[in-house]
Specification:
alpha+beta; YefM-like fold; about 80 residues; three-stranded mixed beta sheet
Length: about 80
């Protein structure tokens, strides 16, 4: 993703926004440090795609999950399988 410093983006803002609307997002930087991202309105925000807890209450983990397959794994290490 390309970056544009604030100073250089000001005179080209219309073109940059048009480009972002056509699925070519860019980053706005201030003195070389990224401060914002310009993306199309209908594109998914990366943070929303990776939100934690979205399956809360829908998935159950058995209490013995940390012991599952123990004997098979031990057998692999001891050469029994």
């Amino acid at each position: 993703m390309r970056a544009a410093n604030m100073h250089e983006a000001k005179p080209r803002l219309s073109r940059l926004v048009e480009s972002a609307a056509n699925c070519d997002p860019f980053i706005i930087a201030r003195v070389g440090k990224p401060v914002g991202r310009v993306i199309p309105v209908d594109s998914p925000v990366p943070d929303e795609a990776r939100r934690s807890g979205f399956l809360k209450g829908q998935v159950s983990v058995p209490p013995e999950v940390d012991r599952m397959g123990t004997s098979e794994i031990e057998g692999m290490f001891e050469g029994r399988s």
